[in-house]
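Reply to thread "Modeling small-molecule complexes from scratch"

Following up on the discussion above, here's a worked example others can learn from. I took a protein sequence and the SMILES for magnesium ion and predicted the complex. Inputs first:
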Amino acid sequence: MEDHDDEIDEDEEGFLEDKSEKKFNSGIDELEKTKIDYKRIKKIDQSKKRAAIESVFDERTVFHLNKILVNGPLKRIEGIISAGKEANVYLAYDLEEKEVAVKIYKIDSNTSRWMKKYIIGDPRFKKIPHNVSKIIFLWASKEFKNLKRAYKVDLRVPKPIFIKNNILIMEYIGFESIPAPVLKDIKNPKEPVSLFNEILKFIKLLYQKAKLVHGDLSEFNILYHNQSPVVIDISQAVSIQHPKAEVFLVRDIKNIFQYFNKLGVETPDPKDFYYDVINMEV
Ligand SMILES: Nc1ncnc2c1ncn2[C@@H]1O[C@H](COP(=O)(O)OP(=O)(O)OP(=O)(O)O)[C@@H](O)[C@H]1O
Ligand SMILES: [Mg+2]
């Protein structure tokens, strides 16, 4: 993958050139003033940068988004679907005017701290970066890889399309400009028993075929589309070899059973289902 760090620093280099030019053409006073101005402007610049970094549109993200809009695969970004703590999701259109979902992760040091917990121990990620943005990029690429793995074994997740740093483009789930609702916003889903069974099948196949555990599965991360579930937000999913895979699996199962219990669905013993999932012979 290309590294565009140089291109981002261009502005700063340009500014330094201006400064040295002035240095040759001015007296001592002017030189002092230039120095102070430089420091002051640099300070303002830094705080502006920090402010931008708090939101998703830091300099580097804007740079890459522009590139994606010029060279594809995006034609235009229409509007926001969701603004969250860790990421924003946008509705956009590709070159064929087809809807796509764009998830942009925020470059945030608090987020990167807990992300590390999920990356450490996953045999797919041997080197853990220290740099905040690099951890976030790794996180986004983890979501992309997890989507690919699940999609490949025919599980109902959005099809992954493109990844660059913290920008992930995937299949859009919804009808025209109306995104599919999350399961928690559906008061009375039709045929809850078959919905429950579909989600159980998803958990089982994700484990047995894609060799992954979702790790944050609940009615908040399942879209309800065409009366069927589509599982999203798979960034924290871990390989079944991860030391915490079983703990995460138990938690996922608990969440789903609890949700359907509340809906009045008669659920089997979650323990039996757990053993059914981890038994690779089944
Ligand atoms: N492929 C998609 N198609 C349509 N809508 C989507 C898609 N992916 C995500 N969304 C919408 O965006 C919301 C947030 O997405 P997601 O759950 O992946 O992010 P998140 O990691 O939970 O973000 P945060 O934790 O910061 O809220 C979802 O609840 C859903 O409404
Ligand atoms: Mg989510």
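What I'd highlight from this example: The helical segments are 5-25, 28-54, 59-71, 109-119, 132-152, 192-208, 245-262, 270-278. The pocket of magnesium ion (ligand 2) is lined by residues 220-221, 233 (CB under 6 Å). Questions welcome below.
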